[in-house]
Amino acid sequence: MYMRYFSRLLSAMAGPRPVVLSGPSGAGKSTLLKKLLKEYDSVFGFSVSHTTRNPRPGEENGKDYHYVTREVMQTGIEKGDFIESAEFSGNMYGTSKAAVQDVQAKNLICVLDIDMQGVRNIKGTDLRPIYVSIQPPSIAVLEKRLRDRKTESEESLQKRLKAAKVDMEFSKEPGMFDVLIINDNLEDAYGELKRALLEEITKVKEVNMSS
Ligand SMILES: Nc1nc2c(ncn2[C@@H]2O[C@H](COP(=O)(O)OP(=O)(O)O)[C@@H](O)[C@H]2O)c(=O)[nH]1
Ligand SMILES: Nc1ncnc2c1ncn2[C@@H]1O[C@H](COP(=O)(O)OP(=O)(O)O)[C@@H](O)[C@H]1O
């Protein structure tokens, strides 16, 4: 009884662990993330990455990404402003220290949406997140979803599919991810994601209620 109390107290004091969502482009990371942030807006906060890619219709600067030039991004990296950065499909992407600190300063669980190079690099930091891999049911389904999303040129789509095949293999490497979710039916996948994060959600709610 006491042991359980103390272990919960200790883990609450350690603060919530960040969450990394990774997986192929088109696997459904943003869709799942948006559902999570909507249902638990007082629990999770999104780490807004920097990117050199152009904004898509409906995306907002500072909300979906910080849209910057290659020069600005490179300068930031050289100054040590980034926890990690990577080149994906012809563009640069990176998590700034400020992006994570902004979320953690609000006592929220920081959620990062990053590619597999990001996962490898974050493993070398002291962030200690929960690693969640979101995978499509098959490459054929992934291709259909990417085409139906209508955000990519044929060239960009082919690059994403090529990277997806590597990513799908990477996700099978033992010890790389704590949780692996196949996003076939969206509601089922969302249910799995929530279950995987339940302990951290409860922790944040308890701490925020008592403060
Ligand atoms: N390493 C790293 N990858 C990122 C970052 N931000 C986004 N990504 C990844 O970059 C890839 C492309 O993202 P995006 O252009 O938004 O396309 P989408 O995944 O098809 O919606 C995805 O795999 C993202 O997870 C970041 O800060 N660091
Ligand atoms: N379970 C699902 N069933 C059908 N379509 C889905 C499902 N999950 C996501 N989608 C759709 O697939 C496309 C890719 O999802 P998205 O969240 O943009 O992926 P990612 O962020 O991983 O690139 C979007 O158009 C989205 O609406």
Structure in words:
With 211 residues, this protein is α/β, with parallel strands linked by helices. The protein has one domain: P-loop containing nucleotide triphosphate hydrolases (Rossmann fold, 3-Layer(aba) Sandwich). Helices cover 47% and strands 19% of the residues. The two termini are 24 Å apart. Residues 25-31, 145, 148-149, 183, 185-186, 189 line the site of adenosine-5'-diphosphate. It is an enzyme of class 2 (transferase).
Q: What are the salient characteristics of this protein?
A:
211 residues, binds adenosine-5'-diphosphate, 9 strands, Rossmann fold, 4-stranded mixed sheet, 5-stranded parallel sheet, binds guanosine-5'-diphosphate, alpha/beta, 19% strand
Query: How is the CATH topology named?
Result: Rossmann fold
In which order are the strands of the major sheet placed? 2-7-1-8-9
Fraction in beta strands: 15-25%
Taking all Cα atoms into account, the compactness measure Rg is: 17 Å
**Main pleated sheet:** 5 strands, parallel
Amino-to-carboxy terminus distance: 24 Å
Described by the principal axes of the CA atoms, the overall outline is globular
Number of domains: 1
Mean pLDDT: 93
Q: Quickly name the level 1 CATH class.
A: Alpha Beta
